[in-house]
Amino acid sequence: MTAIADPRAPHSAPRRKGPNLEKWGWVYMRASGVLLVVLIFGHLFVNLLTGTGIHQIDFAFVVGKFATPFWQWWDVLMLWLAFIHGANGMRTIVNDYVTHSGVRKTLVWAIWLAAGFLIILGTLVVFTFDPCLGVTSDSSLWEMCQG
After folding, report:
1. What tens digit of pLDDT does each residue of 34-88 get?
2. Packing angle between helix 101-128 and helix 69-97, nearest 10 degrees?
3. In degrees, to the nearest 5, what angle opens at C-alpha 75 toward C-alphas 71 and 79?
4. Residue 81 maps to which CATH number?
5. How far is the C-alpha of 86 from the C-alpha of 65, rounded, in Å?
6. Which phi and psi (to 5°) does residue 52 adopt?
7. Rounded to whole angstroms, what are the CA distances from 120 to 29, 87, 117, 123?
8. What CA–CA distances, in Å, run from 55 to 23, 50, 127?
9. 74: closest CA among 51, 41, 31, 28?
10. What is the phi/psi pair of residue 82, to 5°?
11. Domain count, the chain
């Protein structure tokens, strides 16, 4: 007969040295979730409920927002928090459901590489956005870009 260990018994495995990354991942998910709610609802409020509402959103609206450092940093913070939050959630799912350690490590690396690449790409788009790049004389932006 095999005895089942008492579920309240202390775990006998020694604790690893260094920071508890799972704990800090858990804390990050809670903190970033709260911040993302504020950032996303602020984003939606400004874009959909102020001015003329959804009718104001066009290329000029985006150009105007990306010309302001406040909105650049707002959008970049939202981008970074969302990608890291999502990647950490995917990492948790992979750790919970993938049993083979090699596959698990490969998937976790792929998740972080994809998230890192998209964070870099998104940040570059926000901070290097130039509405006049590639504008020709037959474009409706020609006069704006000549000034």
Report:
1. 999 999 999 999 889 888 888 888 888 888 888 899 999 999 999 999 999 999 9
2. 170
3. 170
4. 1.20.1300.10
5. 25
6. -100, 15
7. 21, 14, 5, 5
8. 44, 10, 25
9. 41
10. -65, -45
11. 1
Contact 86, 115 (CB under 8 A): yes
Q: How far apart are CA 89 and CA 26, in angstroms?
A: 10
**Helices of type H across the chain:** 21-44, 59-66, 69-97, 101-128, 142-146
Please give the model's pTM, rounded to 2 decimal places: 0.78
Question: Does 51 reside within a domain?
Answer: yes
Nearest to 80 by CA among 113, 32, 37: 32
In a domain, 49, yes or no: yes
> How deeply is 92 buried, as exposed, middle or buried, from its count of CB atoms within 10 A (0-12, 13-18, 19+)?
middle
Q: What is the DSSP letter of 46?
A: I
d(CA 110, CA 95): 13
Look up residue 120 and give its amino acid. Answer: I
Range of the domain at 73: 27-131
